[in-house]
Write the structure tokens for this entry.
Amino acid sequence: MLLSLNWLKDLVNIPKTITPEEIGQKLTQHTVEVEKTEKEGAKFDKVVVGKVLDVKKHPNADRLNLTKVDVGEKELLSIVCGAPNVAVGQLVVVALVGAELPNGMKIEEREVRGEKSIGMICSLDELGLGEGADGIMVLNKKTKIGQQFSQYLKLEDVIFEVDNKSLANRPDLWGILGMAREIGVLFEAKITKEFERIFSLKLDNNKELEKISVKVEDEELCPRYMAVKISGLEITESPEWLKKRLLSVGMRPINNIVDATNYVMLELGEPMHAFDASLVPEIIVRRAKKEEKIITLDNENRQLDNSVLVIANHEKAIAIAGVMGGENSGINSDTKDIILEAANFNATSVRKTSTKLSLRTESSMRFEKALDPNLCEVALARCFELIKETCPKAKLASQITDLKNFNLKTGPLEIDLDWLSRRLGDELENKKIIKILEALGFEVENNEKNILKVTIPTWRATKDITIKEDVLEEVVRIFGYNNIKSAMPIVAIMPPEENKERILERKIKNILALGASSTEVYNYSFVGEEKLSKMKISTDDYLRLVNPIASNQNLLRQNLLANLLDNVKTNQAKYEEISLFEFGSVFSDLSGTINKLSDKKENLPWQKKHLGLIEAGQKFTVYERVKGKIEYLLGAFYLEPRFENSEFMPEWADKKTYAKIKVSDKEIGSMSMVDEEVLESLGIKKLVAVVEIDFEKLVEIISQAPLKLYEKSGKYPMASRDLAFVVSSKILFNDIQEEIKKFNELIIKVELFDVYEGENLPAGEKSLAFHVEYLSLERTLERTEVDELQKKLIKHLEEKFAAKIRNF
């Protein structure tokens, strides 16, 4: 939103000692965010008046001319110009090299069809001053060559650019009058007589005149609708002062009627609209019909539905309420009579309509902030006043129609001054508080010692001020946040409850990312049926999304693998080896779950957090890598994993490598290679191994694990022996390892260091080689004693597992 300082000065007596920069800073600190304070003429920097001295046809282009232009410098400028109306002797507007025009065009020295062009002769359109379809802008003969164009236009204003987001809760500030009121409060300056005069404007309603046929079918979406017919009009250009004022705040002049409605919108914050009375025999405010269409003023054919409020006649829609008028009822050069509309529309309805149609206008931006319905009456009178200035013969040709159905809650709110001081954290004099509120337009009664009864002004009562805390905020922001004394809180601040699960998750991430050199990924929680089908996974029990973000992501995932495989596919061309992990939620459908809070049966999805690890590469070692990383991770928490065969194996898994992961006899997840056929169907050209762990079970095991205490190392030497057995392939090495560990208390460590299947071994058998360490904390073990224990161990394993000592 742009604000004109000259316009503001017409409405509030700003002291001459206050600079524009001070105004901008004060507004930013107390009211709205002023992003920029700029002299109006700055937009025409390096734009000057020039005189065309020579014009001839471009040798390489029929529609271009080569001109020589005098801009008051020593050398004439050679400029290529495509305007049909350029002629010798004209005084024109020239943008020099380095200029940036209001339409965003940057002027550079360049070649056009082989001819050098230094600068540009500008049109009205390029200067942002109106439509310039007929060619360049030609100036008055009395203009001085080389004069700055901003001086020619007498641009002496200062423009403030306000961030629209900071106005979101202040509908009263979408007009210059509201801003003037605010500045008056901030600088303790009085508003002018013009300000008071505008707000006191009213139209006399002549009951002897005809009535306009107006019907409001939906009073909730249109709480007030005012209209009056005006005759005796002549559609002309607006006076220079009006055009200049509109241009100063970024709005192009169109004609005297449209400019008057725009002026009132900018001044009061109340959007207006004028219909050609000959095209609008009646007005009906209703919801759009199914599949109804309208061609709006921007020449777009727009599809409507029943949620959109329109202004219509008995045949069709003629405007989209609060957003934009229709082409079939707009003002044109032949218009003699108009119906002038001042209405109030439901803010939510306008916002939804604007979003639905992708059509955001100056009008919709204001209506969607919830305007004061009382503005309609003032706006109608002010607009007629401006029209009378350009059309002296204009007169009211109908009674004033005013259909209203609104009730603003203006209070009063009771404010306890002791409460206000406690919440403020500072002591303010009662007189100071009352002065601030009254300056802002609140009515204040102070009949009791410490109680204020505050009545809200209508322009703040639509949604801005509703509770006493809002009134407190008004006092604080005007008093100044910087003026509140800083103080430490008087209550003790307790540390937040420790979230052990989150701490553990962070620790695991550090272990995997730093120690295990894996990369963390974040994936959507969604998968698609086609991908799961390629993985041989049935989607019958998957939860389906009603409104998926994409057609190939229409299910909630039940594992992390599907998306991790996508990560591998995306990166496989760039890396030989890929190592990734992810923490994420998985989902399942548990229909009929009991909601413990309400004791009602609801279809609630089951959700758990899982940890997934994936290794991909060209060698079969990916399986050993992923297994090693699990052992490394759990080892950091002094846990020892066991890997066991499983009767149940998912279809995507390689049947020879699938294993359950157990810790302390509790299953926490699984590990497997991914079947090569599945990988091929997914377009993955590397071998892949994956681990998926139930994070909640892992947290439970870690939290229940006994505290690890330091134990000093033994002072006696260890004795070690190696054993290699041939056993059935069906026997798990974990079972043999556990049996060796518990065979004798002197055995302190057992480690598998070799697995062999192949030559010299019968089919269905394998060789397992273990490293066994013996230690006594009380004495040095004799070699003969260790050998004897080793013999007994071998005999025990032979009996238990039918193991045979390997002899090759």
About this structure: The chain has 22 helices and 38 strands.
